[in-house]
Every structure is written in C-alpha cells, then in structure tokens.
Amino acid sequence: MTVHSLHERRSLADSSARRDAAHFIDGEFTQGSTGKSWQNFCPTDGSSIGRVPEGGRAEIDAAVRAARAALDGAWGRMSVVERTDMLGAVADAINRRFDDFLEAECLDTGKPMSLASHIDIPRGAANFKMFTDVAKTVATECFPMTTPDGTGALNYGLRRPRGVIAVISPWNLPLLLMTWKVGPALALGNTVVVKPSEETPLTATLLGEIMNEVGVPKGVYNVVHGLGPDSAGEFLTQHPGVAGITFTGETRTGEAIMKQAAHGIRPVSFELGGKNPALIFADCDMEKAIEGTMRSVFSNCGQVCLGTERVYVERPIFEEFVARLKKGAERLRLGRPEDPTTGIGPLISKEHQQKVLSYYAKAVEEGATVVTGGGIPEMPADLAGGSWVEPTIWTGLSDDASCVNEEIFGPCCHIRPFDTEEEAIALANSTPYGLAAAVWTENLSRAHRVAAKMDVGICWVNSWFLRDLRTAFGGAKASGIGREGGVHSLEFYTEITNVCVKL
User: Fold this and answer.
1) What radius of gyration, in Å, describes the C-alpha atoms of the chain?
2) Element at 259 (helix H, strand E)
3) Is residue 3 part of a domain?
4) Fewer beta carbons below 10 Å: N end or C end of the chain?
5) Are residues 209 and 298 in the same domain?
C-alpha cells in the first residue's frame, strides 16, 4: 500500500483525491488490525484529506519486533560507511521527490509553501546528510595508564547503537523534527519506531516509500499512527523492547512519558515547551530587530517551539517598536499554501484554534491593550472552514498574567518596556521554561554579557532560527532534557563501553 495520490503535482485547492495514511511496519504498508481510524482534515479550509489508521498494541509490538530483528540482521552487520551511504541516498531521494513532500507537508499543516520549501523539506534531507558526516568522523577517547607492575594498560571507548529508539514527533514541523531524530538514530546504527502526531501523518508515511526505494533493510524505519493515552503513543513508550525515547512537544506530555520511561530506567531526550523572550535594546539595528521579531512571532502561524511570545523593549524605543511591529503584522496576508503572496497560514486544527482564541479572550480579561488582531479574520468562503486566527499583539499586561507566563503557541506576543539591562535579564528569566531567547543590540560587550546570563538552551544575538546543525540543541529547566546535534547526539543515541586492556 502507498500513500494515495501524493505523487501528482497540483494546486492544493483543486485537489479532491484522497490521501490516506498507513502504518509502515517491517517494510510494508498496512492499515493494521484495530479497525479504528480517524479523519485527517486540512486546516486551510477544513476539507477532508483522508483517513489515518489508529495503531494498537499489536501494531506497536510488530514494529518494535521488526526493529529489533533489523538490529540483529543486515542493518546491524553494515559498516559505518555502508550505512551512511544508504542514508545519504535517503536524503537524495527526499530531494528528488521534493514536490511530493512539500505537498504532503502543506496539506497536513496549511503552512505556506514558500516557508516549507525554504525550511521544512530542505532540512528534512539535510538532517540525514549532516548526521552521516558525524557518524563517519566521530572519535572516542583513548588513555594509556600506568600499572603497579610497570607494564601499563590501555583504555579506549567503543560506541554502540542504543537499540530500538521510539521517536514521538510533533505537528508543527513534521518532517524537519521527525528526521532531526531519525537521522542521528539511524546514522549511529539504531532502528526506529516513529509515532508521528495524529495531526500530521503524511510525510512520515511517505518517508517509508523512500526507505524502500533506496533499499534500507526492512524493520529499520517503522511508523505507527495513533493518539497518545491508551493508544499507540502510550503503548510505544511502555514497550519493554524500546531502548530510548525521544520526544518533542508539550512539557505536560513529556512528564507523562518520563513516568513510562522510568520502567526499565530508559533514557529520554526531550525538547519541550517554551515561553521565549526577545530583548530589544535601544542601540539595536531597528530594521533587523523588527524583521527578526516578525519572523520569530508570526512564522508558521506562531507554531514554533523556538518562537517569541514575550518581547521586552528598552523604553526609549518602545513606542516606535510597537508601532512598527503592528504595521508588519497587519501587512501579513493570510491565504492558501500554494499562493506565493501568502505570508501566514492557519493554525493546525479547530481544537488548537479554540485554545489560542481562549488566550486572546483571556488577555483582554486580564487588562491587555490589543494593539492589533485578537480574533478570527474574515476569510473568503472557500477558506471559511479553516483554523484561522489574526496575528495579535498586546501591551499593558502585568508580569503575572496568564498570557505572559503560559505557552500559547499561536501568532501572538506581549510587548513590555524595560529600563535597565539587569531588569531585562530578570524579566527574560522569570519563567519555568528555558528553551530559547533572542537579544538585539549593536553593543558587542552587552551582547556577550546578556547572552551568558540567559537561562536557555539557545540564545540568538541579532538573529533568530539560525542553526548550525553541529551545535548542541535542547532546552533548560522545564523546556527539556538532553542535547542533540552534531557529536552531542551521541550521548543519547549510543552506549559507550570502556575497554581496558592490560599490557
């Protein structure tokens, strides 16, 4: 079974063909045995995309057993060069079928094709390429030591794959964030069982086709669709054959997964929620700060873990900054993914739309001044069924307001003035989260000084979403556990054994 009609290039608006998802287990597409499924809706207009099968314990068990068998089979016997060459072919195949992945990604998410074609699909391929380089070049330590008899000993490290990795990936950047985990897992010799978000099943399914096309052994890459509690997500994290769990998503879900991982003392790697600040100093390059903050607040309709929801602006430029950000927000054009003039798409679902709108209402209740937005935009009749909200900016909220402290995950931010560098740092760090921050200043000393005091996993200076994939990535405090990227991924995706040889 293949994903239906993903190969035809057409306007998304004109497409009526079904695109049913499927599990991918041991190299085969299947609808599974539960008889359960759900309807996948396009967030752009509310139309039906197709059905998604819900996996149960039997599907999870079959996927884990297939992944375990692959470790003991041809995949486990491959040399590093053979394995990485094959994953390089996976990356090349993603690029060859770029349009197929782009269409699937935009159908599931509603994001503009201009965004997905620039970020999501290229990074999906790059994640495989980069980690093949890491796997081929990484070294382990070696220490000679003296012994009482004078002959000495030699200690050296051996890295081995951890085993079957459970990959639970989110809906906001489905291909990018899934391959960010699958890439290093496979490059380092593991096998995976992927449980994609129920909102975005298509690209994970399509990647199964790629795996078969390039000859990746059966069982190396598996996909089981489902929900969280009492469904595929929970069954996967409970399975004793899973050696490690990597997850991107809400902090609350991460806490639930940690409880499951405690059985068997299995390691986890988590990128969780955030309430990320931007600090705008009066000496910033205003044009760059506005452009960067616009992207960090409104890109992907605000559905970016690294996005900015709290903006702190030094008082002398506060009014100008608010006015210019308002102007930028109001220029954003809402529309279909394939329209090149579309600047912002819909939220992922009607359920998420209601969550974001509840915060829009709560901000007003808590005393916010609505600078712009705050509701549902008027859309053409053919888009009225989509999950649309207005790009929104607030001022005037107290520091303890819900909309200042709770992750909303929508195209919105609160802007507050500050007077001193010390005050800005304190405000930025006044949250249980610690994922990302952005600092905008032309003062080099201040840039280094403030960045060093941010309680976050990544701090951008005069930029946003700029990533060298070799660097450590992850969250501090309630925003995550562990670091991935470059050699840092080795800590989670491999086990190291020290070999001590008496000479």
Assistant:
1) 24
2) helix 251-261
3) no
4) C
5) no
Q: Going edge to edge, which strands form the sheet with 164-168? A: 28-30, 23-25, 221-223, 191-195, 164-168, 244-248, 268-271, 480-481
What gap in Å lies between CA 167 and CA 24, rounded to an integer? 14
- pLDDT single digits (tens) 488-501: 999 999 999 999 99
**Per-residue pLDDT tens for 345-361?**
999 999 999 999 999 99
| 346 and 450 both lie in a single domain | yes
496 and 447, same structural domain? no
Amino acid 198 reads E
CA distances to 229, 274, 391 from 178, in Å: 20, 19, 27
Distance of CA 392 to the CA centre of its chain: 23
- Interatomic CA distance for residues 91 and 347, integer angstroms: 29
Q: Dihedral angle at the C-alpha atoms of 414, 416, 421, 424, nearest 10 degrees?
A: -40
Alpha-carbon distance of 178 to 195, in angstroms, equals 9
| Angle (nearest 5°) at CA 103 between 299 and 222 | 100
- Same domain for 174 and 256: yes
Q: CB of 206 within 8 A of CB of 6?
A: yes
Which tokens in the block code for residue 121?
A: 């699909």
Instruction: Establish whether 142 is a catalytic residue.
Output: no
Residue 399 is part of which domain span? 276-468
Residue 8 lies in a domain: no
Active-site hit among 42, 284, 301, 305: 305
Do 423 and 462 share a domain, yes or no? yes
Integer CA distances (angstroms), 88 to 93, 94, 192, 394, in order: 9, 10, 17, 46
Please report how the helices 174-187 and 98-109 are oriented relative to each other, as an axis angle in degrees rounded to 10. 130
Count of structural domains within the chain: 2
Residue 271 catalytic? yes
Instruction: Write out pLDDT tens, residues 150-199.
Output: 999 999 999 999 999 999 999 999 999 999 999 999 999 999 999 999 99
Q: Are 414 and 277 within 8 A, CB to CB?
A: no
264 and 287 part of one domain: no
pLDDT confidence of residue 18: 72
